[in-house]
Specification:
Blueprint: E1 34-42, E2 65-72, H1 76-91, E3 101-107, E4 112-121, H2 124-132, E5 140-146, H3 150-154, H4 157-165, H5 178-187, H6 189-194, H7 196-204, H8 208-217, E6 221-224, H9 228-241, H10 249-261, E7 267-270, E8 277-279, H11 285-295, H12 303-331, H13 335-348, H14 351-361, H15 366-384
Parallel strand pairs: 6-7
Antiparallel strand pairs: 1-2, 1-5, 3-4, 4-5, 7-8
Length: about 375
Amino acid sequence: MPSGATFSPGPVFSLALFCFHNKIRAGVNGQSGRGSVFRSSQQGAERVDASPSGAAAETSAAEDFSLSLVDTNLPTEAETELRSFVAKRLTKGALFEGLGNVASVELSIPEVKVGCYYCLLQQEKLLEAATLESNINSPEYVICFLGGSEKGLELFRLELDKYVQGLKINLDAEQSNLETCVTPYLRSWFEDCVCSIQRVVQLFQEKLAFLLHAALSYMPVEVKDSDERTKKDIDRFLSAASLQGLVQEGTMTSLCIAMTEEQHKLVVIDFSGPQLQFHNAGSNKFCEDWIQAFINGPEGGNPFLLWQILENFKLKAIQDINNLKRFIRQAEMNHYALFKCYIFLKNCGSGDVLLKIVKVEHAEMPEAKNVVTVLEEFMRETAVA
């Protein structure tokens, strides 16, 4: 099994949904986590109680806020403690619209620290109005998801940022669609964001290598005749497994264009038959070795651990890319280094993918481009032999 950092996923828990219909609204979580949504409104100099003891929350010199619960599935005591936590973050100006944070929160029920993702969100129309008129008294929402550990939830922070953006179109001051749209959406956060990787691993098993290879190669993937949730799970996994944000943006764009132009390289995942089928899919030893870490992982496929394995997978791919680029720079002046490049590509298990990436990155560098061309010839000859 490929090596990688391990960690304790921490407690993952669920409770029944409790709805508190005060003057505002809060959200809920899924079966394996908790969630709350608060609304804050700037109120001039008014101070509002937001702490367990009843003391008024400290505010900045310029303005204050009120914090009201909309909906939650937390017990009353834990909700009050969470409200105090959110109020302190708002007072310090530690929340930015659309950018979530993760921290540990110690609640009395249960008596354990849990990971808490929290994000400030403003509905789309009011956000536009506030941009035009800075003095507008527009409500803002703080969404909290609790479950697992801080380190575990941190792995999913970007996924959760994307997820909460889906609330914007359904947020309204009257909360008219709270029960029909907002609450069901928030209730599904754990299943949709965290457990999707678990479902993909269980669905594909050994065929997961095809997905990993497609993600690393930036190959377009078409999913045919699947249900909507499965398609979203696959899209989310491909996005998470790609090296987007870890390699140069220009490299990623060029690879995407190149793969899209090669129509015969479109990977098709077909669910129309009794068993799922891949068409035009590729794989390599690197991806095949890593699927054992996913399939045979500890704790029965704990999603937090599976996501950590995926992060380690990408980290190893980046390390291999950097090693190859270093060898190529050496090979520009040293024939022995060229041989080292070849041996590295032959033994790393992902030479096909690495060559595509460095070829695009070195397209405007004549000497490096020549080295890559020679390496491609070596690899073709080896494949034929």
